[in-house]
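Narrative summary of target 7.
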Amino acid sequence: MPPLTTVSETEVIFSGALALDVPSAYFYALTYDLSTNVTRDSRYRMVLGSDQQSNLDRLAKAVNEGWINLPVAMNPAQAVRILDVLNIPASTTAPQWPVTNPSANQIFKIDWVAYPPTAVWQAYRPGDDIAGFLGAGSCGASRTVSRPGAVRFDAGLYDWSQQPGG
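Modeled conformation, tokenized:
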């Protein structure tokens, strides 16, 4: 067996149906104060271009003050993680990997999207993914970036085989 190669970081674009859908109420809460002259595409780019903490603060305020109801399907911390990963630079050169394996689908559709659980979303802070979602399987920093139909994942040294279904 040839020796395994160790890299400190790598990127790959996962493509396919990844179930990264953010409820529209969250977009309304994040853009309610923009001028009506701002186009839908510009609003979308502005939301994606905002940092996780800013989006999380705005969504937490909208939920806590009753402006929007907490959707059953996704809490604000889950939404800001997805919004952050939807912001892929146009210049990315990462290779593509079609996600067709049920185990890989489990990682995106169930495991990754469902973190953090609704019961503790208000304690979430950007960066918690390393200890919370990636846990002991990760030896390096991680960052996920995606867009509808594709995800660029910078996995550091994470051992995906330790995820349920992996």
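The CA atoms of residues 6 and 62 lie 44 Å apart.
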